[in-house]
Amino acid sequence: MDAEQIFPGVWELRTSYGVDTAELFTDGPMPHAAWFIAGDQSAILDPGPTSIAEELLDAIRKLGYETDLIDLVIPSHIHIDHAGASGWLVKELPHARAVFHTRGAPFMRDVARLTAGTADVFGEEWEEIFGPLLPVPDEKMTIVEDGSAFKLGGNDYRIVFMPGHSLDHIGIFDEGNKALYCGHGLGNYKPHRYMPDPPMTLPYFDVDASIESIRKARNLEPEYLLPVHSGFLASNPSFAIDAVERVTIELGEIIKKGMLEGLSDSDIENSVCRYMFADPSKSDRSYLPLVISYRTYYERQTAKAKKS
User: Which phi and psi angles does 250 have, rounded to 5°?
Assistant: First the structure.
């Protein structure tokens, strides 16, 4: 696991593991970036799955910190590749509590639905990739809402509710450094790419909520972005926010058009890849999950409209 200090007392920890069997973000190993905030009220942000939890704690110890003193574990959302280690960590760390938005807490208190959803997306071999998913007991859980404030490492941080990628998604805003730990709320970035992927996922994706969350992030005027998987983005965050908003909207229009024309998902995927890469053969992964996530959302909206 690679460690880099990005702010005084704040370390970014990067690794990769397993394989993205659903091809949601890559056609190879899953990349992950977590963060450790040292000092008073120490915290791990976006801890990742249980399969990397030991490696994460070992990396923190190698930096010279006592992991038994860690106070908080704060995932951006409850998906297993971000919050999966929470139950294991609060069991392993004597003082630690896990922090969840009020919408996500029930799924971590009883992980049956999260387990079933993970198997639906990643297949029955999901535990080989992500490790076991342990529940978080109430006495080890802190529940937050939009605007909840924390002192982490002696500095001011604020919870920013950013739904869309998931119902419970939060960002964590470092008030002093004006840095937004944005989870998947601002899409998925790849270093070699000019354009980001939108904040899609399976089985649930809310396109309109995502666009609102992107605009909410813009209003914070962050000077740094810290998206999961890819890690620290120090240059031109306003450009990155504008780019993910445009990609999220324009891909939605492409997919809606394809649906109206009765195209198959694979034909719509071809249009998506043409938009992203000009030459669809240059696509670096399958974009079929993206098409399905948008289509499912639009079908859900149409059903709601008919019912009302």
Answer: -70, -35
At 21, the pLDDT band (50, 70, 90 cuts) reads confident
> What predicted TM-score, i.e. pTM, was given to this entire model?
0.94
Q: What is the pLDDT of residues 37-47, one digit of tens each?
A: 999 999 999 99
In a domain, 231, yes or no: yes
Does 85 reside within a domain? yes
* CATH number for the domain harbouring residue 188: 3.60.15.10
Is residue 287 in a domain? Answer: no
Which H, E and C letters describe 197-221, residue by residue?
A: ECCCCCCCCCHHHHHHHHHHHHHCC
Which single residue is written with the structure tokens 């915290």? 43
Is residue 56's pLDDT more than 90? yes
Q: What DSSP string describes 238-262?
A: HHHHHHHHHHHHHHHHHHHHHHHTT
